[in-house]
Fold this sequence. Notes:
The complex is a heterotrimer.
Chain A: E1 3-14, E2 17-29, E3 34-38, H1 45-51, E4 59-68, E5 71-72, H2 78-81, E6 89-92, H3 106-116, H4 121-134, H5 151-162, E7 169-173, H6 181-196, E8 202-207, H7 210-216, E9 219-224, E10 227-233, H8 234-239, H9 244-251, E11 302-305, E12 308-310
Parallel strand pairs in A: 3-8, 3-9, 6-7, 7-8
Antiparallel strand pairs in A: 1-2, 1-4, 4-5, 9-10, 10-12, 11-12
Chain B: H1 4-14, H2 16-34, H3 69-105, H4 107-122, H5 125-135, H6 141-168, H7 171-177, H8 183-194, H9 196-219, H10 230-239, H11 248-276
Helix pairs in contact in B: 2-3, 2-11, 3-4, 3-6, 3-9, 3-10, 3-11, 4-6, 6-9, 7-8, 9-10, 9-11, 10-11
Chain C: E1 2-13, E2 19-31, E3 36-41, H1 47-54, E4 62-67, E5 70-71, H2 77-86, E6 87-90, H3 106-115, H4 121-134, H5 139-142, H6 152-165, E7 170-174, H7 182-197, E8 201-206, H8 209-215, E9 218-223, E10 226-232, H9 233-238, H10 243-251, E11 298-301, E12 304-306, H11 309-315, H12 317-327
Parallel strand pairs in C: 3-8, 3-9, 6-7, 7-8
Antiparallel strand pairs in C: 1-2, 1-4, 4-5, 9-10, 10-12, 11-12
Helix pairs in contact in C: 4-6, 11-12
Amino acid sequence: MSLSVENLRIYYQTLHGDVQALDGVSFSIGDGEIMGLAGESGCGKTTLGYSLIHLAPPKRFVEGCVMLDGEELPIWDNERMVDFRYKKVSIIPQYAMNALNPTRKIGKMTRELLESRRLRYKDYLPELKRRLDLVQLSQDVLDMYPIELSGGMKQRMVMVLSTLLNPSLLIADEITSALDVSTQKAVAEMLVEFRDREFVKSMIVVTHDISILYQIADSILVMYAGKLAEKAPTETIIHSPRHPYTQLLISSLPEVGVKYSEKKLTGIPGSPPMLLNPPTGCRFRDRCPFAFAKCVEEPPFVEVEKDHYVACWKEMPVHD
Amino acid sequence: MITSKNEFLYFTLRNTKLKVGLVVIVFFLLLTFIGPLLTDYAPMAYVGPGAHPPSAEHWFGTTTFGQDVYTQFVYGLKATFQVGLIGGGLGTLLGLLIGFTAGFRGGIIDEFLNVVTNIVLVLPTLAVLLIIAAYLQVRGVMTESIFIGLTSWPWAARAIRAQTFSLRTRDFVDLARLNGMRPLKIIFTEIAPNMMSYLFMTFILQFGGAILNAATLDFIGLGPTTGISLGLMMNNAVLWSALHLGMWWWFVPPGVAIMMIVGALYIMNVGLDEVFNPKLREI
Amino acid sequence: MIKVENLTKIYRTGTFGGKELHAVSDVSFEVQPGEVVSLIGESGSGKSTIGKMILRLISITSGRITFNGEDISKLKGRELKEYYRKVQGVFQDPFSSYNPIFKADRIFEMVRQEFYPHISSREWKDRVVKALEDVGLNANHCLNKYPHQLSGGQLQRFLIARALLLDIQFLVADEIISMLDASTRIDVLNLLAELKQRGLSILFITHDLSLANYISEKAIILYRGCITEMGATEKIFTDPLHPYTRMLIASVPRLDKKWEHVEMELDRRAGEVNGGCVFYDRCPVADKGCAQFRPPMVEVEEGHYVACYRVMDEMDPVNKALEHSLSKQ
């Protein structure tokens, strides 16, 4: 499978005007790739994740082209997207584990879910049981109510449900944030296992926690203020990032072993720009220690070395 | 630049339901003041030929006994609004007191108040009213209002208790406690202001509910024995076979008026909900 | 300064309060002046409950909390207010800590009304501006705004400024940066470290070990209401002894190495604990003896305490039998 996104623009309609949440985003994901989508709040990563599967007001599709496995995804048309949802593209939303209907037993809910897609529960039951075993959930959970399960168990259940029809693309939106450290590890490792067993072809893992991405992602896409900053294989992003934002972000993460008394880390002063009327040129300009004259022009997101894309004038191979 | 307050006003003025509802209510309210000025008659006086349809002399016609229906109508409106205000107001007040206390204190106080609420809720008000009617031969609109207020507060108390419960767990309440503030002070300064919209809507619903309640009671003969109200008009109309005799001008105006007032109040409530709750607004 | 002794909190749950939930079980520790102590635990460990008990927001079931020797559960009225002048808290969700219909500065005004009613508003304004400077905020940019107009980091710093206005000696920081962005987190963390250098004691409640290591000298690991390991942060991280601590450290996602494959059981049901070690059903090295009685806290080296029978066995086989028989009495 492969996903290619070209020049995607999604704006939020508000009273005050259009918030340019996603402003001309282009990238691609290869077959079997787990791509991490990282960035801080308001950068547009959740908007990007959701737009690929469900665009509802106040979000508005402005322009762009999304191709999945060579076929165009009609993301602006909610009716036509029904055929793709759950079968070709699936999502595990944030707090999905809290979205389980508390008055339904898990098995009944699964049955209803499948029937809403005109599929027979009986047909999928054997595979469902196999997958429950894989994520170390007892088959009894089908007979339980959500309240009887712990947070980690619910999250694993949702993972199994979302991937039951073997979608080509899975979008996982902050699925580890509400979990304990030990469950986080288990859930993250399960994601990789799903990919290894080809239950899912490729994944976009949206999170603000870069260290989880280091553990499981093949590549990382860093976003800032609605635009792409850098995309590269995981090792490169962590150990030799080229975009100033990425560099500052990585160096502000306290590692197990670093102490304040030994090495005081610094954050990034200032805050991201408002996307209602975003500044022209590079959006990181005001906070960037390396900004220079050319930065008033918007830098293009280009490949500076193999599989390594950066949007920064400083990193351009040739510039004035 | 649109600030938070302006945004509020913007939505208020833009909301059709609110506007329509408000217009209807204001119309009827004005009628209670202006209406009586346009008639020389007293509501219960026998002033004309009986059972006459609307004419230039009697705009809404006359009753079987020759009373002017229009006069009865505008005076009845006044009583209706009175019941709504006093009955609804009392119900809201009681609901507030009990709901806040139960919601904020929790524990044994909450349990106790819950029991009280449930008892009043399941009280057969009709039976109680019948007993009261037997004892109080002469009852005014005030008595009716107080009775309605004393029996309609439970659902308001429950709703307010639920809201208070959910607000109480918010961190800003804890922060107020870290200031050493007393619980009563916290309720007034932190919780109640947050529920302003909710309290407002509760009052509106109580108002409408009281009017409806009163109309029903009046209609079945358990209303005030003195004075006139819209419900009483309808009661009399049915009593004197206005339906059979085709005297539509006697029961249609009060019926329609009650329907319009209560309906307008409920529509206003929905509109207000949209104004206060950003998620329900249409862009 | 703050001393917690045998602190226990039991909630009654179920219909008619038949069942009991042991949120905190027999926890004892101390925080000295000018010390930052991390209380580390996952959800359900009871760490927030302990913080709230220290702040007198939740009642104590049994045990004692003393502040400079005075039992805080006896404080009422004016004494309680005096306590709040010295001890304050900041919570996890910055947006929930503000009443959304009022402006953010109202929290300062409320402090003035309750604690410094005799100070003029002009002098108070000066104090507020200075406190904001101390936390790294520019008063001109942040004052007179509603909470939704400020960022999470700014709101948290406001709350710390509020605590500073009271000239406190002890701060309970309950997961204060978990809802902040990565780039703001470190700034707030650095702020706490600076305040510590100026003499403030902090109880830093968190689930994130790297943060605890960055800022605190002492660490306490909690699991399901019980302390499993306690000691100098450095020691615990470089040489964790309790199986739970080991599992925690192995599960933290790091940027310098990949996860190891660690044997561990995942949770089954959200169940209760019936005697014995709280970690029993997930422990890779537990044996039957561990399910019988709660292991006592034992000082395995200076300042380093562990509550685990297996660790004790390894350390001192001669005493193993003695300890076991003692705890059975």
